[in-house]
C-alpha cells in the first residue's frame, strides 16, 4: 500500500517534470526562431551588410600582429570597464 502510494507520487512528479521540460523546449525553440529572424533582418539591413563586409575583409588579417594588438587592447578596455 505504502509502496504503491510512493510509486504514484514519483510517477506524478516525473510527469510534471516531463511536461515542464517539454514546455521549456518549446519556449527555447520559439526563442531561437525569433533570434534567427532578427539576425536575418539585421544582416539584410545597411548596418548589418557593412559589418558583415568589414568582418569579411578583416578575416584574412586576423593573424596579423597589428590586428592582434587591437583585439588585445579592446579586451583590456572591456576588462577595465568591468572592474
Can you walk through the features of this model?
It is a single chain. By secondary structure, the chain is an all-alpha fold. 88% of the residues lie in helices and 0% in strands. It has 3 helices and no strands. The protein has helices at residues 2-43, 46-58, 65-82. It is elongated, with a radius of gyration of 25 Å. The termini are far apart. The model has no long low-confidence stretch (mean pLDDT 87).
Brief synopsis:
With 83 residues, this protein is an all-alpha fold. The protein contains three helices and no strands. The longest helix has 42 residues, at 2-43.
Draw up the topology in text.
Elements: H1 2-43, H2 46-58, H3 65-82
Q: C-alpha Rg, in Å?
A: 25 Å
Which bin fits the share of residues in helices?
over 70%
Given the C-alpha coordinates, what overall shape results? elongated
The secondary structure category is: mainly alpha
Number of helices: 3
- Low-confidence parts lasting 5 or more residues at pLDDT below 50? none
Task: Give the amount of beta strand, in percent.
Answer: under 5%
Indicate the mean pLDDT.
87
Care to count the β-strands? 0
Largest sheet: none
